Amino acid sequence: MGENVVIIGSGQAGLQTAVSLRQLECAGAITLVGREPHLPYQRPPLSKQILTGEWEPARCLLRHAEFYAEHDLRLLRDRMATQLNPAHRHVLLDDGTTLDYDALVICTGARPNRLRFPGAELEGVCYLRTLDEAQALAAQLQPGAALTIVGGGFIGMEVAASARSRQCRVNIIESQPRVMQRSVLEPVSNFLQARHEQRGVAFHLQECLSAAHGDRRVESVSLDDGRRIATDLLLVAVGVRPDLEWLEGSGIECGRGVHVDTHGRTSIDGIYAAGDVAETLHPLLPGRQVLESVQNAVSQGKAAAASIAGRPQPYTEVPWFWSEQYHYRFQMAGLPRPDDELVSLDTGQPDSLCLLSVGGERLHAVQCINSPQDYMAGRRLIGLAKPLALDRLDRPGARLKELL
Amino acid sequence: MIRIGVTDLGGARHEVQANAGDRLMEVLREYDWGVAAICGGMCSCATCHVFLEQDWFDRFPEADYDEQDLLDFLDHRAPNSRLSCQLTLEPEHDGLQVTLAPEE
Ligand SMILES: Cc1cc2nc3c(=O)[nH]c(=O)nc-3n(C[C@H](O)[C@H](O)[C@H](O)COP(=O)(O)OP(=O)(O)OC[C@H]3O[C@@H](n4cnc5c(N)ncnc54)[C@H](O)[C@@H]3O)c2cc1C
Ligand code: FES
Q1: Which residues in chain A are closer than 8 Å to B38, comparing Cβ atoms?
Q2: What is the pLDDT along chain A (404 residues), one digit of tens a residue?
Q3: For residue A73, is it within any domain?
Q4: Do B44 and A329 touch (CB under 8 A)?
Q5: Interhelix angle for B65-72 vs A372-384, to 10°?
Q6: Domain count for chain A
Q7: Last residue in a domain, options A308, A337, A368
Q8: Whether residue A249 sits in one domain with residue A207
Q9: The CATH number of the domain where B9 resides is what?
Q10: Domain limits for position B74
Q11: Is residue A17 located within the same domain as residue A77?
Q12: B-contacting residues of A 206-245, CB under 8 Å?
């Protein structure tokens, strides 16, 4: 097929869509438009190996520079889509040019929620989403520097671990009663918080930032209860929201994100969406979900490409995610539901964890720390979506894979 | 320079070049043969599965527990299976022969 495909956003989902289109032997023109100056790169190392200094930035690139020409992919960098006009099948870019398309894929990802507080504009107040931001933060993580993090989500927790490995002093301010509350089961929160505390990270739970103080640069922050914390850096990591503003007026159906079905199709014919920007249906999940993970970006990118190539392949993969903090590898698959029963399994290994979230005899989610075997078994079991014989695990040494 | 012979999913053979210190996964991912390597080499996804010819298999350090655990769950697991993100190339691997494993 000689279709002209335009992909807006050249991150994990955008690149995957382009690569999958070529793998599916789509011969048409493919243009990738990205706001950032870099070649497409992966974000997970930004809070990990880039901050610890283990990786050179170039190692984050998803493909080498020649790849794009070799596969006849036109990559427009430093260019932003500002408007979508489905009636004329074109997008407007910030330099005034328009791009016509036969198929359009929206892969604009998400941007960090900004917090408003007195002192928000001071130097040393930062956010972490891009490689540039990661490098700027890494340069400031000098031994002895004090870092305060607002938000004890995955990014806040990972940055805390990386900063500790560089001998920074770390405080985390979190408004909820436990860290990572939105995404993980309570024992995971408790386990990881304790490991951070053992390494000297201080937590201020159920507290909110009220202001940052300093002349030009942040010197301290105050909490709602009036306490002050001296700091050299303030990282705000309070979640992200899908990058949808440029779609205003396009008529495309959006909720929290762009609504898509399991084939990546939006409400408008010829327009698809994938990655953090998409709010998707999924056979294993209730309702629509915005899933913020590399796996989701890859799976949805593949689904969108398959639809465009005329060889539809729905997104059915069990959603999964990982995080790394010190030498703890957290892995989760599926999503817990509110009324689920929580089952804790003996992993047979010290300093590890395996939790199951079970409802109506179905395994909805598995969350593990340093127990990849149980995680893999759980991920399989979720995908099989069959009743679980949980009683078979009621003996010492029982392993989850026995239920497969 | 390390030369690597790669057999893709369709059975076609290719030769690629790598440098000492490269991870095999990073080399393979550059080509469109289906090494997804979703987790970027964190030993979390098993989407970088390859088969090594036996002589070569013995010339890499053994898989650690994490890698073994992931390999155990692959339908296409074979005695010469490895996760290519866990393999660092050294000069003595010049001539390495690998076959890509089918997607799970
Ligand atoms: C620090 C950090 C650590 C993470 N760690 C993990 C992890 O361990 N495991 C995991 O599974 N996930 C992790 N994630 C999440 C994961 O990186 C994202 O889910 C994934 O990158 C989503 O891919 P995407 O393509 O949808 O969005 P992105 O990768 O964000 O790409 C979107 C791109 O679109 C561009 N863009 C936006 N608007 C426009 C516009 N109007 N015009 C042109 N371009 C535009 C953006 O600049 C961006 O480059 C992490 C994320 C961060 C920030
Ligand atoms: S790239 Fe994920 S396990 Fe190798």
Answers
A1: 294-295, 298
A2: 458 999 999 999 999 999 999 989 999 999 999 999 999 999 999 999 999 999 999 999 999 899 999 999 999 999 999 999 999 999 999 999 999 999 999 999 999 999 999 999 999 999 999 999 999 999 999 999 999 999 999 999 999 999 999 999 999 999 999 999 999 999 999 999 999 999 999 999 999 999 999 999 999 999 999 999 999 999 999 999 999 999 999 999 999 999 999 999 999 999 999 999 999 999 999 999 999 999 999 999 999 999 999 999 999 999 999 999 999 999 999 999 999 999 999 888 899 999 999 998 899 999 999 998 899 999 999 999 889 888 888 887 788 988 98
A3: yes
A4: yes
A5: 20
A6: 3
A7: A308
A8: no
A9: 3.10.20.30
A10: 2-100
A11: yes
A12: none
Pick the closest to residue B98 from B44, B68, B60 (CA basis): B60
> Tokens 């979508």 sit at which residue?
A84
Please give the tally of structural domains in chain B: 1
Ligand 2 contacts CB of residue B74 (under 6 A): no
The burial of A203, by beta-carbon neighbours within 10 Å (0-12 exposed, 13-18 middle, 19 or more buried), is given as middle
B87 lines ligand 2 (CB under 6 A): no
Q: Which residues contact A393 (CB under 8 A, 6 or more apart)?
A: A343, A345, A400, A402, A403
Give the whole-angstrom CA distance, residue A353 versus residue A186. Answer: 12
Domain that includes residue A228, residue range: 125-236
Interface of B to A at Cβ within 8 Å reads 29-30, 32, 34, 36, 38-40, 42-46, 66, 69-70, 72-73
Of ligand 2's listed atoms, the one at least distance from the Cα of B41 is: 1
A373:B42 CB<8 A: no
